[in-house]
Specification:
- This protein has 5 helices and no strands.
- It has helices at residues 3-9, 14-26, 30-43, 48-60, 64-77.
- The N and C termini lie far apart (37 Å).
- The relative contact order is 0.12.
């Protein structure tokens, strides 16, 4: 089943949105990857990986304040990460 179809059937499934972001990122479609990651974070905002990817894609888009905000949230959620 395609991810877009799965999302239409279960639009609140954060795993589908995250996987869609990863797939779009793999295709170098950063704008659409960002939208998918942001949707995942809107559904479940306590997953550091979502915010990490959001921060990276906002940085690629030149939105440095937004990137910093997202990366700060990722750090807050995952304080034991070995930076």
């Amino acid at each position: 089943m395609k991810l877009e179809t799965a999302i239409r059937l279960d639009p609140e499934n954060v795993d589908y949105w995250f996987r869609l972001g990863v797939a779009r990122e793999g295709n170098n479609n950063h704008k659409r990857a960002l939208a998918a990651y942001e949707r995942a974070a809107a559904i479940k905002d306590d997953v550091w990986q979502y915010w990490y990817h959001i921060g990276n894609h906002r940085m690629f888009a030149g939105n440095f304040p937004g990137a910093l905000e997202a990366l700060d949230k990722a750090i807050d959620l995952h304080q034991d990460f070995d930076y």
